[in-house]
Amino acid sequence: MIERKFVQEGIVNMKIAEFLDKELDRAEYSRCEIKRTPLATRIVIYAGRPALVIGRGGERIAKIQEKMKEEFGIENPQIEVKGVDNPYLDAKVVAKRIKFALERGLHYKRVVTMYLNRIMEAGAVGVEIDVSGKLTGERHRTEKYVAGYVMKCGHPAQEYVDVAKEQAVLKPGVIGVKVEIMPFMPPEMELEKRVARGEVEISEDIIKKFAVKKEEDKEEEEAEKEEEKVEETKEGSDEKNAVKEKAKKAEKKTAEKKGDERKKEVKKKEGMDKGKKSDADASGSVKKNEEKKSGE
């Protein structure tokens, strides 16, 4: 089945991403792109430190290619390494750097505030960093650090917000790090804000066009509502007519039944009258015969 094939490819892609995340942890692995062709499978690796991915003379890439063949059954993997354009706008790279800083023994507040400032200086719209675990004492707690504006719900939050999670293993326990970065504002919201600030001027013709469109939309909505009402009234009248017709048919059937019953009763009465007349005639003839016999 074709569906099973796609599902299996998705599972293999997920396993490859997990393998690269563990294998290239120190190289600040961000993500990978996998493109399958009839001749080979192209894998593009994005990392914050691409030199560590390549290794000396390409030794590390050769080992990764061998593991891809053995563990995932990829016949001809072609690996390409690219650096992240702006590491401070990549949530995965930032989360890994915070994890490494915490594992080196730096205080979490100092690390988080430093990366908050650097991310905002890099041009991000907003950032949120959550740190949870045994931060200072025996009790577990979560602290959130926010700068700028970050979307939290809806399709824009899924489309425009980069989210990553990492775990720093320390002596007191595991500390979780979650980074949410909104690198740029959606085009629609950016235009609205620029108009509100007065940075963008809108001509009167465009405003009139929008006003005319709004009026036309309102007229169309009203016309649709009226059509719906007319259809509802037609449906209601049709239903009423159907009910009346059914009632008339039922009345006709009941009248016909009553007429049939009356006819049957009349026939029965006529039969009874005929029987009575025949009995009377028979009794009269018997009496006449008796009278004749007695006269003789």
Please describe the structure with a list of short key phrases separated by commas or semicolons.
8 helices, 7 strands, four-stranded antiparallel β-sheet, GMP Synthetase, Chain A, domain 3, single chain, Ribosomal protein S3 C-terminal domain, three-stranded mixed β-sheet, alpha+beta, 296 residues
How far apart are the first and last residues' alpha carbons, in Å? 118 Å
Percent of residues in beta strands?
15-25%
CATH homologous superfamily heading of the domain at 89-197? Ribosomal protein S3, C-terminal domain
Overall structural class, as computed from helix and strand content, comes to: alpha+beta
Architecture of the domain at 89-197, according to CATH? Answer: 2-Layer Sandwich
Q: What is the fold-level CATH name, i.e. the topology of the domain at 89-197?
A: Ribosomal protein S3 C-terminal domain
Which consecutive residue ranges, at least 5 long each, have pLDDT under 50?
none
- Please write the CATH class name of the domain at 89-197: Alpha Beta
Large-scale geometry: elongated
Strand order of the largest sheet: 5-4-7-6
What does this protein look like?
- Helix 4 runs antiparallel to helix 5.
- Among the domains are: 83 residues, K homology (KH) domain (GMP Synthetase, Chain A, domain 3, 2-Layer Sandwich), CATH 3.30.300; 109 residues, Ribosomal protein S3 C-terminal domain.
- The protein has 8 helices and 7 strands, in the order H-E-E-H-H-E-H-H-E-E-H-E-E-H-H.
- The mean pLDDT is 82.
- With 296 residues, it is an alpha+beta fold.
- Strands 5-4-7-6 form a 4-stranded antiparallel sheet. A 3-stranded mixed sheet has the order 1-2-3.
